[in-house]
Design brief:
about 210 residues; alpha+beta; Glutaredoxin; 2 domains; 4-stranded mixed sheet; 4 strands; binds glutathione
Length: about 210
């Protein structure tokens, strides 16, 4: 049966689920659902009023992290969670870091350069805001990644995992916004980002 992912590709959290499905070879339909304003339809699907939400037949479940964990147990395909306890814990923390700190730092770029001007037709990007995020916040995220990656690595851990799905969609926010990773300052991260975002799964999730 084809599952439904409610929440479109502009949402990095919907993209996490799309990338996971693509990597696992799970058939899905991507359905647009805007989380603003909090419609009764959205609140019925997710009491938190956020996207994405998964529908699998008569089963409905929200939250990208929960959805991917569900698909790991139901969907077949390559595993996204390492077997080894320490790698598993590192993968979960990388996901948590990307979903909290990563989104805080990359979403201004996605918002100002893509969602606001292109999807909402709500004016030009606030480049002054982005200059300050680039100066003060972006290095925190990129320094963290640089410190986690081995030289030449194309995955954060020993194989492709949920860590890469979650970090990848944050790096993809920058790519969508036309913001590149400075390879002279963050060489490992620039190499990682280019390898990751070149995967067919991330290309399929690109809005
Ligand atoms: N922890 C949630 C976060 C979901 C989330 O924040 N989604 C955004 C869209 S990218 C949203 O629905 N925002 C609306 C809101 O926060 O009210 C997940 O992993 O699914």
């Amino acid at each position: 049966m084809t599952i439904e992912i409610h929440g479109g590709k502009p949402s990095p959290f919907a993209r996490k689920v799309i990338v996971a499905c693509e990597e696992k070879g799970i058939a899905y339909e991507s359905k647009d659902l805007i989380p603003f304003p909090k419609s009764p339809e959205l609140l019925a699907l997710n009491p938190l009023g956020k996207i994405p939400v998964l529908k699998d037949g008569d089963f409905t479940i929200p939250d990208s992290s929960v959805i991917v964990a569900y698909l790991e147990r139901t969907g077949g395909g390559p595993k996204l969670y390492p077997e080894d306890a320490k790698e598993y814990a590192r993968a979960l923390f990388a996901e948590e870091y990307a979903d909290t700190k990563g989104i805080e730092i990359t979403s201004p770029f996605l918002w100002e350069r893509f969602i606001k001007p292109k999807l909402m037709q709500a004016g030009d990007p606030d480049e002054e805001r982005l200059a300050s995020v680039r100066e003060e916040q972006l290095p925190i995220f990129l320094d963290h990644l640089e410190g986690q990656l081995e030289e030449g690595a194309t995955t954060l851990l020993s194989g492709f995992s949920i860590a890469d799905v979650a970090m990848g969609v944050q790096l993809q926010n920058l790519e969508i916004a036309g913001e590149s990773v400075d390879a002279s300052r963050w060489p490992r991260t620039a190499h990682y980002a280019s390898a990751l975002l070149g995967r067919p799964s991330f290309k399929a999730a690109h809005p």
